[in-house]
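Renewal narrative, Specific Aim 1. Our central claim is that a sequence can be written position by position from structural information alone. The example that follows is taken directly from our test logs and has not been curated for this report. It begins with the structure tokens describing the chain, in the order in which they were read.
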């Protein structure tokens, strides 16, 4: 079977992007849920069922890897693979390009009057 390219995973959903981004350091499920909520300023909250389904899918796609159980509590910890890092970087560049390309148009619409005008 031919390996998928990193570009074929784009665009990522908000939830997937935040899950992958949260794994710049190894975390267990609860840690991922808290980190995603923190990084998204509370706008993305993931329940256990959604999270573990997503983790299973991301692991099968080789974007993350499950580490050995952390302690006697048998918590499963995950980390981003090099391939996962590549996908996150590409998604960041895609989003950055989208914002930069549209910034002038939003300003013309008066949408950034009271907000910071440079990203």
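The sequence written for that structure reads:
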């Amino acid at each position: 079977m031919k390996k998928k390219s990193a570009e074929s995973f784009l665009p990522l959903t908000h939830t997937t992007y935040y899950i992958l981004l949260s794994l710049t350091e190894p975390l267990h499920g609860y840690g991922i849920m808290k980190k995603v909520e923190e990084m998204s300023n509370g706008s993305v909250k993931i329940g256990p069922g959604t999270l573990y389904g997503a983790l299973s899918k991301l692991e099968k796609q080789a974007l993350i890897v499950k580490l050995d159980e952390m302690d006697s509590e048998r918590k499963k910890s995950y980390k981003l693979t090099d391939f996962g890092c590549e996908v996150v970087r590409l998604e960041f560049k895609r989003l950055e390009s989208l914002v930069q390309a549209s910034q002038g148009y939003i300003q013309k619409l008066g949408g950034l009057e009271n907000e910071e005008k440079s990203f």
